Amino acid sequence: MGKGKSVIAHGSLLQCIPTFPGGAIIMVPPTNQTKLEGEKVSFPCEAKAMPGNVTVRWSKEGVPVKEVGSLETRVIIRTDGTLVINPVSSDDSGLYMCEVSNGIGDPQAAQAYLNVEFPAKVTFTPTVQYLPFRLQGVVQCHIKANPTLQYVTWTKDKRLLEPYQTKDIVVMQNGSLLFTRVNQNHQGRYTCTPYNAHGTQGSSGQMEVLVRKPPSFTSKPEAMYQRKVGESVDMHCDAQEADGTQKPTITWQRRDGVALPKNRVKISGGNITIEGLRRVDFGYYECVVSNEVATIVQAAQLVVEGTQPHAPYNITGIATEFSVNLEWLPGYSGGPDLKQNYVIWYREQGNKDWLPIPVTPPGSTQITINRLTPATTYEFQVVGKNELGDGMLSNIVVVKTKESLQEKPTKKPPQADDEHKFISSSDDDDVLDYRFISFPTDSTGVTLIPPVFRPKGPKPGPPRNVTVTEVGNGFVISWMSPLERANLIQYYLIKYRTGGNWKTLNKGQIRPEENSYFIKSLVGGRTYHFRVLAYSVGSFETSEEYKYPVPAIVKQRAITAGVVGGILFFIVAIILSVCFVKICNKRKRRRQEKAYNMVACRITDARNGGQLPGPCQVPLKKRGNCSYNLELV
Questions:
Q1: Separation CA 565–CA 405 (nearest Å)
Q2: 3-state secondary structure (DSSP) of residue 560
Q3: Alpha-carbon distance 295 to 282, whole Å?
Q4: Confidence of residue 451 (pLDDT cuts 50, 70, 90)
Q5: Helical segments of 391-461, H only
Q6: Is there a single domain that holds both residue 15 and residue 105?
Q7: pLDDT tens across 75-95, in order?
Q8: How far apart are CA 334 and CA 387, in angstroms?
Q9: Total domains present in the chain
Q10: What is the extent of the structural domain holding 530?
């Protein structure tokens, strides 16, 4: 309970003010400040609380200021919560946070940034630096500056050096000197002096720059090694130092920075052996030779054959209102005899489900993805696959489609005629008519309406009175158009399930003027659940769920029809077989009779002792019509 406070003046009770305990609240928070090195800085942090036993804690980059070694002797926290640093140093720049609490509720916090500026200064001066003869070399000047460095002056052998007017010398952005091709004239004693907006804190010490010959390779690895999965590879490398220099060290590394597999790699001197090669071993390996003068590198490519494709790279996307055109460079196919095809995976940013699109024609490295929503951000990945399986996914590429000029139709005009009235569940003027949006079409003229990933924008009312009717050759699903905002409908979809997940029934989009869909067959004895979804440009509405138990008689009818059909087919087959046999027998009998008659005619002629005056090759039963003229000699 709170406590009351009474105020009495001239014997009269004037007012009673109740008070309640509460957590600390920051009344005056710290603000960002910029100071010159050596100045004093104060960060206020005034808090109020009930009870007023407020504790203030200050931290820098998450570490209590009393535990920061460089601040320990220069920092004070006053009783009112103010943080004082006197004097500030260049290392004090950072984010400071005050946290207040009186033990009630959660602590309150506020933060501010301290920016400490100072003249440019040299932080480190190496006494000796080396330049590799006839190679590129750098003489470094280690500088720290806030605000940023403006320029650096150099001296060589106590004389001003003009690098901008000297051949083979370039001043780098950090103030160091780059020698594009080192010669003996570049040897000498150098100093550097950095400057920024606050000037300089002085020059560096003298740096002795010596020109020496770099180490050289005595044995180089081959440019390329080709091996199959599971095999091993040996790569050899060796080098020697120049006179007057130290012996170089030889190490191996991958160019992409991936660590070498320790359990499968053996390094002996400058030689490396990788056993049990895998797809991940594909890449460039570098033999690195280094001493105080220079570091030289020799690269070798390791190709591992017989693997799934490597990830495509350099993916670019060009967006329009409703589509994105993707192009990419193919990764290694997995072997010289393996061809790879591609699949695009994409999703609307923020959606967890990815959608696949096979790339056609096979092997193509570009594709146009249609049916996208204007002014929407999409994520794309490309994966290659060959006969061994799917390869590695590419990096995700983010592309945003352009905003449609026609995506924001004008609102309903007050004087609109009946033909163009906007339909709404209320008489709001904020409902927009999407009937006049111009969508793209494909090569056949079919409108490409983008799919809806996440509903947004105006949506039609729900379809009504979903029913399923059995007809002679199948089933018809019918429904009635929505009563509200039916003009927004772009197409319908029908979803169904028989106990599992919802699936899409229709293959293509159902036009908004259609109110029925024909199904050839449903499984008898099962119960189907149907929903009709009405889609607008960016949203949808679903009908009530309709449950339809398919009668078991449908299943029996199908079985009966199958049995009857089988019997009829069997009978027809028997009849055709009998007819075929009879026809064959009849033809065979005719051929036999013809052959018999020919033989009989010849025997008769031989008995008569002469030839017939004319041909008499007629069947036996027709021989009565044949006449003979015989002459006796």
A1: 61
A2: helix
A3: 25
A4: low
A5: none
A6: yes
A7: 999 989 999 999 999 999 999
A8: 10
A9: 6
A10: 464-553
